[in-house]
C-alpha cells in the first residue's frame, strides 16, 4: 500500500474515532508498528494529528492549507459524488477545462471511466496522470511555472495558453463559496488560471463539496453570477441548498 493510501485510511479512521493506537492502525494498513510511527510523524508535521503515547489523536486542522497530497485524504467520497453529476453536462467529443486541486482529480477519473473521446485542457498534473489512461482523449497541458504544493502549472504563460482555446465546459474546484463573496480560494498562484478557464469556456461549472459552503478564503476568484451552476454532494443540507437557490444560484446535488 502506497503512503498516500495509508494516510487516507489513518485520517478517515481518526475523523471517525478521534483516537487511534499503533496496533490498530498497523492492522488497518497491514504494515509494521514502525511504519505507523513514521506515518504518524509525517502527518503530525502536516498538522493532521497529534502524537500521544502509544498512538495519535485527531487534529481538526484547516485541510485546505495543506499540500495537495494531504488534501486528497479528506472528503474523498463527497468529491466522487460531485464528479458523478457531470454526466448530465458533458458530451463525448467536447473540450473540457479542469483546474488544479483534488476535486478535479476525481473529475478526471470520472471522465476517464465514462467517456470515449474528449479534449481536456488542464494545468493539473495529477489529473494528467489519470487522463493518460484514456487512450482516445486529447490532453493539453499549458506551459508555465510549477506550483509544487499543488502539483500544477501556473503563471502568465499558462494563462495565455489556456486563452488560445475555445472550451465547451470548464469545471473548477475552489476552496470556498459564499453568497457574500462568491467563489474564493487560498491558492493565490492559481487564481489567474481559474479566471482564464472561465473566460475561455461556454459553460462554467463550480465543483465544490459541501464542506466549502458558507466559507470565505482570502483570494477572490469570481462572483456566483459569473458561473452557470454549482455541483455539490448529498451531505449539503436542504436548508443551505434552498438559501443559495433563493438567490438564483443553480445548485445541483445527487437525488
Could you name the key traits of this structure?
255 residues; alpha/beta; seven-stranded parallel β-sheet; three-stranded antiparallel β-sheet; 37% helix
Oligomer state of the chains in this structure: single chain
Derived structural class = alpha/beta
Radius of gyration: 19 Å
Strand order of the largest sheet: 6-5-4-9-12-14-15
Would you report the number of β strands?
15
Separation, N- and C-terminal Cα atoms: 34 Å
What global shape is seen?
globular
Mean pLDDT: 90
Name the helix and strand elements from N-terminus to C-terminus, one letter apiece: HEHHEEHHEHEHEEEHEEEHEEEHE
Quick structural overview:
By secondary structure, the protein is of the alpha/beta class. The protein has helices at 3-17, 22-29, 33-45, 68-71, 76-84, 102-114, 125-131, 156-162, 191-200, 238-245; strands at residues 19-21, 49-52, 55-58, 95-98, 119-122, 138-140, 145-147, 152-154, 167-172, 176-178, 182-185, 201-207, 219-222, 229-231, 251-252.
